[in-house]
Amino acid sequence: MAIHSFFFEKGPQAVILMHAYSSTPNDVRMLARALEKENYTVYAPLFKGHGTDDPEDILAASPKDWVRDAKEAIHFLKEKGYQEIAVFGLSLGGIIATKMLVDSEPIVAGGTFCSPVVNFHSENNVKEAFLTLVRIMKKKAGYSELEINDRMPEVERKLTNQLTELNELTKSMGNQYSEIKKPVFIAQAGQDEMINPELSIAFKESLKQAPVVDFHWYEDSKHAVTVGVDRKALQTDVSSFLKQLDWNGG
User: Fold this and answer.
1) Chain centroid to CA 117: how far?
2) Which of 19, 82, 181, 235 could form a disulfide with 34 if both were Cys (CB 3.0 to 4.6 A apart)?
3) CATH number of this structure's domain 6-243
4) Catalytic: 121?
């Protein structure tokens, strides 16, 4: 069954929440509901290629598509009348949220949750996790082990190309982090099994001109921090960050 974007309309201040690679907006649904209770309007777009039963659909998309998805999400909210918008994302979603800051999109602030926005290729397990997901989903769809094995080299080739594109995106953004002049929220799980947790510290240190860098380390959490053991603490910390923003200046 296909999974779609969701949109919770509430107050005049809006938040965009973007999901992780090979995942869906369900990553951020609990955070969205918590923010909705705080009177924020929340929109969680679905990245192109995601949300289907076939992970290979993801490989037919590109980082450029996901950047476009984020910009269209901002435009969607503007068209709805929301002029004050903050953008956050988990993992891949955080890369794209940071791209919105780098591109000076009309947002008040941005944030990342366990996101490899610095040196994407450094010690991450994204490739292995995706290949495992493909095997699981192909088996569930009725493919034989032989059919799956025959398909995997092409899947791995496309995946390698896509991850290289993602790495090139983060590299192209990196030298602009020192120029970001909007508040930034950074959350990192101490037990992150997907990326090197130290990357978030490097990102924090690169933000030379951001007026606020709100950094939070959740020692007992794994990569999907939005749904993990520290999800309530994350919800509280994001809410506190949003409350201290100069929304009228956005």
Assistant:
1) 10
2) 235
3) 3.40.50.1820
4) no
